[in-house]
Amino acid sequence: MKKTKMLFVFLLLAITATIFAGCGDDSTTSTPAALSVTTASLPAATVGTAYSQTLAASGGTAPYAWSISVGTLPAGLSLNATTGAVTGTPTAAATTNFTVTVTDSAIPAGTATKALSIVVNVPAALSVTTATLPAATVGTAYSQTLAASGGTAPYAWSISAGTLPAGLGLNATTGAITGTPNAAATSNFTVTVTDSAASAATASKALSIVVNAAGVPLAITTTTLPGASFGTPYSQALAATGGTTPYTWALTAGALPAGLTLDITSGVISGTVAAPAVPTTATSNFTTGVTDAVLGTATTPLAITVSLSASAAAGKTKYDASCAGCHKAGIYDTTGGFPDLGLTTLAAINARFSGGANHNGQTLTAAQITEMFDFVSLY
Predict the structure, then answer these.
(1) Residue 130's closest CA among 145, 142, 150?
(2) Full set of structural domains in the chain with CATH
(3) Pairing relation of β-strands 297-307 and 358-359?
(4) Which residues are 242's β-sheet partners?
(5) Rounded Cα gap, residues 155 and 176, in angstroms
(6) Strands 240-241 and 219-220: what pairing?
(7) CA pair distance 43, 64, nearest whole angstrom
(8) 362-363 and 358-359 as β-strands: parallel, antiparallel, unpaired?
(9) 363-370 long-range Cβ contacts below 8 angstroms, 24+ apart
């Protein structure tokens, strides 16, 4: 029994020693870094402009508590003791020096301080930055907002001289000019902006709004086009009115005579129509379309007739001066060939007049036939 008690005491002492050994110093436990204010400087502020900057710290034991231990913040600004945020709207221009103190949550508490300053600048001079206002149109809703810079926001707007166009009004708070003009005119007026500083500043600007009459519908005014001649340069400009320039032109149906093209910017149809072996009067029907700057459209059908030029025909008045009955160029017309004989192709002409055939009872000489074929081949 005595030996059993001694064994129990021995075991109890061993367990107790082990427990106390585990509670000894732990070489891996780290000590918090020293508390410090890490904000190195604060940016400048402007009188009348909202300001917000948050102080920062590191080390110690969070959370932190902030305070101003020396000096004061600029008038209008305050420090949030919990977040370290410096916020508000400065009311006076000055350079303010102060010291911030941060206190951590350790026991005992750690503290750190930092000398800082905030420069509060005078705001830029108040000015109206809107330089011009766009034109308006009778019966069309209008909306433009005036703009200003400098001074102390918010601003108040007014018309200090003249009047806005009939149907338009000015929002004193936003500076928006809105409404629907009801008469064509040019209105000259002066806008004034007033800021919110204790000693309010003002600025003015002379402006004007031109109100145009209601827009004229877009329409193509070209109704016909002159004819073209084979081998002769051609140039005609299409015309339109109304809508909003610039215009863009296009062919919406049909095609121009071969050799002519349409310039989509100027609306000019130009080029040279090459003559076929036997020129035949031909009419090309097509539709032109025009689109204005606001996507209004208009179309119109047109046509160009191509024929042998009068000057070209005049150069071949007859085949032979001694042959009164022979075909003259006046008979060779723009339908091609010799229509009074039913000869409208080179093959038909060749078959009809080759081999000494005659016309009006008179036999054509080889020279006359050659001259005839030379004339035909020229065109």
Answers:
(1) 145
(2) 36-121 (2.60.40.10), 127-212 (2.60.40.10), 219-307 (2.60.40.10), 311-378 (no CATH)
(3) unpaired
(4) none
(5) 12
(6) antiparallel
(7) 23
(8) antiparallel
(9) 364/323, 364/326, 365/320, 367/320, 368/319, 368/320, 368/323, 368/326
pLDDT digits (tens), the chain, 379 positions: 444 444 444 444 444 444 444 444 444 456 789 999 999 999 999 988 899 999 999 999 999 999 999 999 999 999 999 999 999 999 889 999 999 999 999 999 999 999 999 999 988 899 999 999 998 888 888 999 999 999 888 999 999 999 999 999 999 999 999 999 998 899 999 999 999 887 899 999 999 998 887 777 889 999 999 999 888 899 999 999 887 788 999 999 999 999 999 999 999 999 998 876 555 678 999 999 999 876 778 999 999 998 765 444 443 333 333 444 444 333 333 344 454 455 555 556 555 554 444 444 444 444 444 445 444 433 3
CB 82 within 8 A of CB 109: no
Query: At which residue do the structure tokens 């019966």 appear?
Result: 139
Which residues, other chains included, contact 180 with Cβ-Cβ below 8 Å and sequence gap of 6+? 139, 140, 141, 142, 167, 168
Could you give phi then psi for residue 301, rounded to 5 degrees? -80, 140
The two tokens of residue 249 are: 């032109």
The first and second tokens of residue 199, run together, are 């000693």
**Residue of 374, 378, 346, 340 lying closest to 359 (CA atoms):** 340
Q: Where do the H-state alpha helices sit in 134-291? A: none
**Whole-model pTM above 0.70?**
no
H or E segment and range at residue 373 = helix 366-378
